[in-house]
């Protein structure tokens, strides 16, 4: 049996318009919205790098130049900070510049997530690769991608991240039909459906924005017709892999029980900022007492949890 091919490449689709955050996203990509003091996209790239993936391809669209600028040199700013001797801020600016080897390709026509992944074919080649959706932030204290890479290497399979959601929310996600394995956090996926109608969901295992894909996915996407919403759905291609011939390796899921923030949803975006700021050593000691006092002043209400959102 041939040794597994080391996975080094991550694909991040970032061509969406971010209409739920208008007017803030009229001239700025939604991925550049700050989560405390870093843009959301930086958290995603950092996650890839922490898992050992240093070759990052962003599938972009129009008006996304700010993304490229963020991961590029900022000569004038660096010169000003150097002249002021502000080494701490200079380090922060320099960090994103050298975080990863970042490449860019335009998606062109907005034909859905499956089409965005297909646009990475020339860059990825015939290797397994990871896909990270720019809207999802996985808390760095609850590693997910590294576990998915372990499972992919061990089983030579396609792996998706799954999250158990409220059954009332299943119509917002791609939903998996699963079978258990001998590992508590790993299931075999036998079927997938994109945003099932209320009351028809086969389970409450929702696919969230992390995938480790075998290169066969490109061949399937090339012949996948438009599905839900008139777009080429990655879920439809994964359904074929899950139920198709053995050479495709099948599809497995890693069940994630950690903290995940959907920064494409306004409410979850606000929750992410509050929770991450509260946990910061430099902000938390002052922020938490103020937050508690503010919450007490509101009275009533309850904690609806940190997961979920308007759209999966």
From TrEMBL:
InterPro entries linked: GalU_uridylyltTrfase_bac/arc, NTP_transferase_dom, Nucleotide-diphossugar_trans
Start and end residues of each Nucleotidyl transferase domain: 9-275
Keywords: Nucleotidyltransferase, Transferase
Molecular functions (GO terms): UTP:glucose-1-phosphate uridylyltransferase activity
Positions of transmembrane segments: none
Matching SUPFAM superfamilies: Nucleotide-diphospho-sugar transferases
Highest taxon of the lineage: Bacteria
One Pfam family per UniProt: NTP_transferase
EC number: 2.7.7.9
Known catalytic reactions: alpha-D-glucose 1-phosphate + UTP + H(+) = UDP-alpha-D-glucose + diphosphate
A single BP term in Gene Ontology: UDP-alpha-D-glucose metabolic process
Family: Belongs to the UDPGP type 2 family.
Entries under PANTHER family matching the protein: UTP--GLUCOSE-1-PHOSPHATE URIDYLYLTRANSFERASE
Protein name per Swiss-Prot or TrEMBL: UTP--glucose-1-phosphate uridylyltransferase
């Amino acid at each position: 049996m041939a040794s597994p091919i080391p996975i080094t490449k991550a694909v991040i689709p970032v061509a969406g318009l971010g209409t739920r955050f208008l007017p803030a996203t009229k001239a700025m990509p939604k991925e550049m919205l700050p989560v405390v003091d870093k843009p959301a996209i930086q958290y995603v790239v950092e996650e890839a790098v922490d898992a050992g993936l240093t070759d990052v391809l962003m599938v972009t669209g129009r008006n996304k130049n700010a993304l490229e600028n963020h991961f590029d040199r900022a000569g004038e700013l660096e010169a000003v900070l150097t002249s002021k001797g502000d080494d701490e801020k200079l380090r922060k600016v320099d960090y994103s510049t050298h975080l990863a080897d970042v490449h860019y390709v335009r998606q062109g026509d907005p034909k859905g997530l499956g089409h965005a992944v297909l646009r990475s074919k020339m860059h990825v080649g015939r290797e397994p690769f990871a896909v990270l959706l720019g809207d999802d932030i996985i808390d760095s204290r609850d590693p997910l991608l590294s576990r998915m890479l372990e499972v992919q290497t061990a089983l030579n399979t396609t792996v998706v991240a799954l999250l158990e959601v409220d059954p009332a929310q299943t119509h917002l996600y791609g939903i998996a039909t699963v079978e258990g394995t001998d590992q508590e956090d790993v299931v075999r996926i036998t079927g997938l459906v994109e945003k099932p109608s209320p009351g028809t969901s086969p389970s409450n295992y929702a696919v969230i924005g992390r995938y480790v894909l075998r290169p066969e996915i490109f061949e399937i996407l090339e012949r996948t017709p438009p599905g839900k919403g008139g777009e080429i759905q990655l879920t439809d291609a994964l359904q074929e892999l899950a139920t198709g011939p053995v050479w495709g390796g099948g599809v497995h899921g890693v069940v994630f029980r950690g903290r995940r923030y959907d920064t494409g949803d306004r409410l979850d975006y606000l929750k992410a900022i509050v929770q991450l700021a509260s946990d910061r050593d430099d902000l938390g000691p002052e922020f938490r007492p103020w937050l508690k006092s503010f919450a007490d002043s509101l009275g009533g209400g309850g904690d609806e949890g940190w997961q979920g959102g308007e759209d999966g």
